[in-house]
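Job type: complex structure
Entries:
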Amino acid sequence: DAGITQSPRYKITETGRQVTLMCHQTWSHSYMFWYRQDLGHGLRLIYYSAAADITDKGEVPDGYVVSRSKTENFPLTLESATRSQTSVYFCASSLTGVDYEQYFGPGTRLTVT
Amino acid sequence: SQQGEEDPQALSIQEGENATMNCSYKTSINNLQWYRQNSGRGLVHLILIRSNEREKHSGRLRVTLDTSKKSSSLLITASRAADTASYFCAPSGNTPLVFGKGTRLSVIA
């Protein structure tokens, strides 16, 4: 039972490149979330999804794109990476709602050079 | 949004002591959750307390909620080195969770 996984775990990319971070959960949870965590800012919500084909913006969505064609997958794409997007990215899922218990993945550490 | 603010920002105690951290928030809530984050890992859900509850226990964890003061506290009893982590509160009410900057707990063996 893998739970929630993220790939890659570490990524270095150059400014301007497109990068996709993957998130996969095996619980069939309806809700999925993407956060970024930076020193001094805590965790900030980028996008979330209530179900397949339903997504909504969080606190810091600019520069990011998400899709959710299948319940179990919620990829996050940086269309043209910038240095300010260097961060640790966490995916999470929830069975019952946006404000209930969330299960977090192990994170992806992204460095944009 | 429902962001909570944890206090203190950092706490250092000896193994075996109790650790108390607090959370304040500004708006009405349906529930309040506490999460733990070990260094380099994702957050782990510890406990959820509903707005109509005043106290909840889970193992060595005790959470209180005072909706009149818009505050909550997390008590970890008989702390262990493995409790060293950051702790986040997430007050919630029909909107996505907003995490604060957390309390960084160091338990010294």
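Summary: The mean pLDDT of chain A is 95. The interface with chain B takes residues 33, 35, 40-43, 45, 48, 58-59, 90, 92, 97-107 of chain A (CB under 8 Å).
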